[in-house]
């Protein structure tokens, strides 16, 4: 596994990040906030910089599903190792057939009290449960419970609200097997997870213990000239400012594309709480941990969301990783901050 192959510099940086404690940030009221900056503060992590520095000043995205999904095909083979087991199972709740992966530590002393339902990212139109295995294997080794990674139906072939219903089916299928169930997801998957939490609460399915959100998509159809997309609010090395702006421009276009495919042309109200969790009743989300990269184009909406949770009197925690951009879980085993985020996730779930 890639995450086992660590050099001394990797371990030193991981140790440094793990020792950083919460700080008081005035503009995020009632939120426990931890800022894990790089030693070279306000600059991109080198691996991410190498990827983003090639962006043009007017980056284009193909509005073509074949191109958008390129390189994101589902793996055919799932293997278990001596540490972590992976089983393929199905849920037929809500008259659906939903495939999911059961991921758990190969340990007879493993507790079955706790469970995590994980929802993969992929802009609503891509991704699979297999995409989560590189980092969920590592999380499973540290989490004293069982992980269920949902292979939900993707848009536009199966548009909103299908993905939310698929994940709710899995939740209903496993809720009687565990005493404490949490929800997690990355990017669009985190948004879907928040939709599942709302339905679970309103339908009386079960109480969600914690919500662990990696760089979530919180608002659909937001004002691209408004404060949630203002990259000038983000401190950065002046030499990298243009690249940050280019990445924000790229994500504004991605946001439009993924909303279009997610809803498949239907004229839904984009401020509906299941579509845009920013507008949900924050009291539903009793305990929330959000983890976002410093230069993620969704950072400002993530901060607005977690502050809303905190102001409602819920337990809100926010961890911001210096130098990281969107989809940083893809760098597991390569960037120490990613492993640190998974350690933070495991500690939150185990507590």
UniProtKB/TrEMBL annotation:
What positions does UniProt annotate as the active site of this protein?
A: 187
Q: Where is the Alpha/beta hydrolase fold-3 domain?
A: 116-329
Cross-referenced InterPro entries: AB_hydrolase_3 (IPR013094), AB_hydrolase_fold (IPR029058), Carboxylest/Gibb_receptor (IPR050466), Lipase_GDXG_put_SER_AS (IPR033140)
Gene Ontology MF term list: hydrolase activity
Q: What name does this protein carry? A: Esterase lipase
* Naturally occurring in which organism (per UniProt): Companilactobacillus bobalius DSM 19674
